[in-house]
TrEMBL record:
Keyword RNA-binding appears in the UniProt entry: no
CDD domains recorded: CGS_like
Family according to the record: Belongs to the trans-sulfuration enzymes family.
Xref: Pfam families: Cys_Met_Meta_PP
Domain of life the protein comes from: Bacteria
A GO term, aspect molecular function: transaminase activity
Protein name according to UniProt: cysteine-S-conjugate beta-lyase
Length: 385
């Protein structure tokens, strides 16, 4: 516990004092927004550090250094969205390569792999990543990468990061992990052997439902060089304005995560006692499958609770009766967000595939915000009646 406390304390301080928090030339208390597409060459023989904003922008650079430091990687990269970050990371692969991916992966990642990358002749095998034997059985001579999401989305299945990463390393595979749900405050996958950490920063990192952004962090120089070339070559970079706004949100990550998580724990306990609820998914619940694996690799349980109200009709009724949460796609904001995977985030997944993965018609996902937990519970109570 003492080590965790120290880590958390260090992390809290580093969130505020991340290196660029004071502008070196003016002493300004926030990173300047360099709203410029290009940079003057004062001396042709010595080109400037930044020469064109797709290749590099000082505001974006501050954000990229910030996330690299928080995740413990060598270099960070900021993209226009989470999917821009994820699709760019997949550009490391070549035609003919094969990927092993978590089966209940984020819907957009599933769509990317099954409708776009498949046309580039990059094949995917979706596996229950919680079962290492299933992961091993999916290995082919052309397998190049393993894509992990843990806890998975939306049923919060737990993958043993170190176990998969070690096996992948033995087989020369690149490992990528979508850390959106946990954030580096709770989970730092590079410490467990992952090569590339990915984020939809639109969620907890931004935290206010007002910025769309994606981040990637490379664990080593070889990954960093490849990601840099792809980021510059494909050009789906984050703008200076959005980079600034994201940094502004990230400074309060710990305060927001802590408060939301405390409420999420109470919500999960309350839901699991409720007679109208068939099933509750939350890694913090005593009976959540592989909770001990999660506790080994993560410092918290997060703020997303999924639960099954039994049928599509009941789910729709609940969504129409709640007053506190935003009924929407997305998560990880100051306001609570209630979403309906079957018709929202996982609508692009065929129904039978969805059902196989436990994403039933009655499953809803509650991302707990910063409202009073008593009010959140009372609101759900009336909506479930
Ligand atoms: C939202 C989300 C994404 C996609 O990010 P965008 O910013 O919407 O492009 C990827 N992974 C997870 C887990 C997400 O929740």
């Amino acid at each position: 516990m003492s080590e965790e406390t120290t880590n958390n304390k260090d992390f809290a301080t580093r969130l505020i004092h991340f290196g660029a928090e004071i502008d070196k030339t003016t002493g300004a208390s926030s990173v300047p927004i360099y709203q410029a597409s290009t940079f003057h060459h004062f001396d042709l023989e010595n080109p400037p550090e930044f020469d064109y904003s797709r290749s590099g922008n000082p505001t974006r650079q501050a954000l990229e250094d910030y996330i690299a430091m928080l995740e413990g990687g060598v270099r960070g990269f900021a993209f226009a969205s989470g999917m821009a970050a994820i699709s760019s990371a997949f550009m490391i692969l070549s035609a003919g390569d094969h990927v092993i991916c978590t089966e209940d992966v984020y819907g957009g990642t599933y769509r990317l792999l099954t409708t776009i990358l498949n046309r580039m002749n990059i094949g995917t095998t979706f596996v229950d990543m919680t079962d290492i034997d299933e992961v091993k059985a999916a290995l082919r001579p052309n397998t190049k990468a393993v894509f992990i999401e843990t806890p998975s989305n939306p049923t919060l299945k737990i993958t043993d990061i170190r176990e998969v990463a070690e096996w992948a390393k033995e087989n020369g595979l690149i490992t990528m992990l979508d850390n959106t749900f946990m954030t580096p405050y709770h989970q730092r996958p590079i410490e467990h052997g992952i090569d590339i950490v990915l984020h939809s920063a639109t969620k907890f990192l931004g935290g206010h439902s007002d910025v769309l952004a994606g981040l990637a962090v490379a664990a080593n120089e070889s990954m960093a060089v490849r990601l840099k070339m792809i980021q510059n070559g494909m050009g789906s970079v984050l703008s200076a304005q959005e980079s600034w706004l994201l940094m502004r949100g990230m400074k309060t990550l710990k305060a927001r995560m802590e408060a939301s998580e405390a409420s999420a724990r109470r919500l999960a306990e309350w839901l699991s006692q409720h007679p109208g609820i068939d099933k509750v998914y939350y890694p913090g619940l005593a009976d959540h499958p592989r909770r001990e694996v999660h506790e080994k690799q993560s410092l918290g349980y997060g703020a997303v609770v999924s639960f099954d109200v039994g049928s599509g009709d009941k789910a729709k009724q609940l969504l129409s009766k709640v007053n506190i949460p935003l009924v929407a796609v997305s998560l990880g904001a100051v306001e609570s967000i209630l979403s309906y995977p079957a018709m929202m985030s996982h609508a692009s997944m065929p129904r039978e595939v969805r059902l196989e993965r436990g994403i039933t018609d009655g499953l809803v996902r509650y991302s707990v915000g910063l409202e009073d937990i008593g009010d959140i519970i009372a609101d759900l109570e009336q909506a479930l009646k």
